[in-house]
Design goal:
One of its GO terms (molecular function) is DNA binding. With about 290 residues, this protein is an alpha+beta fold. Helices cover about 50% and strands about 20% of the residues. The protein has 2 domains: about 90 residues, Winged helix-like DNA-binding domain superfamily/Winged helix DNA-binding domain (Arc Repressor Mutant, subunit A); about 180 residues, Endonuclease Chain A (Endonuclease, Chain A, 2-Layer Sandwich). Helix 3 packs across helix 4.
């Protein structure tokens, strides 16, 4: 029930209107007095809301005394709401003023729902290319949007981390001081049409944080990072045994060379196996 009321409010109905519509749908029809009594609210508020809903066409008022009200069938109600929303969206898109150029800015996005929502909207707008660097858990959440983009002819380049969230693919830089960084997260990045990017982290407790920007510097950094990752991946695939034989322990120490001294004293973990290439549905579903 709460979810239904939430979605009705998201569609523009007030809390009172939403409750009245659900009550009428449950009863079939009822008078304003009966609705007010069932909801435990004043009759004046109920009658005012019923008048608005009747004028908008969502509720019908029958003949008789007292008047009895009924809400449209769900299919008819959905069609009416959809038509009005689409008409408003089309008008807004065509008539909304378009100002001058805006300098690229960085925006913080908080919350798992907001982060995924921003990603879904942008993925649906992609026209030429999507560069994805995610863990498989995040890839599965966005599988539908990525597949739709590929069917539209969008070029899809991806790297899916195959390890578990507790193991970093590269040696982690320890903090210079203060509190330790939050652990248990999975980094991800998206670059869409080489002009929009998101860099963020999803945590095991269900929270998420991300930075969104169209600034060319960060776009270039993420694209360069992706390219270097893929080059290293293919080199290790083709020459892994030879690299180990030639460099021995030095090959693993190369990573620790560029990490602060307290981290370098530890034996770095080997990078987790990664997959790269054009998206395939069975890979994204893992």
């Amino acid at each position: 029930m709460e979810q239904l009321l939430l979605h009705l409010r998201n569609l523009g109905f007030t809390e009172m209107e939403s409750k009245i519509m659900v009550e009428l749908a449950t009863k079939g029809q009822a008078s304003g007095y009966e609705v007010a009594k069932q909801l435990g609210v004043s009759r004046s508020n109920v009658y005012a809301a019923l008048q608005r809903l009747t004028q908008q066409g969502y509720v019908r008022c029958g003949e008789g005394e007292p008047a009895r009200y009924s809400v449209l069938d769900p299919e008819e109600l959905a069609a009416m709401i959809s038509g009005r929303v689409q008409a408003s969206l089309a008008y807004m898109e065509s008539e909304m003023p378009r100002g001058g150029p805006v300098s690229p800015s960085f925006y913080n996005v908080e919350g798992d729902r907001n982060v995924l929502g921003a990603l879904v909207r942008q993925l649906n707008l992609a026209r030429q290319e999507i560069v994805v660097d995610v863990w498989r858990e995040e890839a599965s959440l966005l599988r539908n949007e990525l597949e739709q983009a590929e069917r539209r002819g969008v070029r899809l380049l991806w790297a899916f981390d195959g390890g578990n969230a507790a193991t970093a693919p590269y040696p982690a830089w320890p903090p210079l001081g203060g509190e330790l960084p939050r652990s248990g997260g999975r980094k991800f990045s998206f670059v869409i049409d080489r002009c929009w990017c998101m860099l963020g982290m999803r945590y095991e407790d269900g929270t998420a944080q991300a930075v969104v920007t169209e600034h060319p510097v960060l776009v270039e950094l993420l694209l360069n990072h992706f390219t270097q990752e893929m080059v290293l991946f293919e080199l290790e695939e083709d020459m892994g045994a030879e690299l180990t034989k030639r460099y021995g322990e030095r090959y693993s120490r190369i990573y620790s060379k560029y990490v602060l001294h307290d981290q370098a004293e530890e034996e770095p973990e080997e990078p987790d196996e990664r997959a790269a290439g054009q998206l395939r549905s069975e890979d994204a579903a893992d």
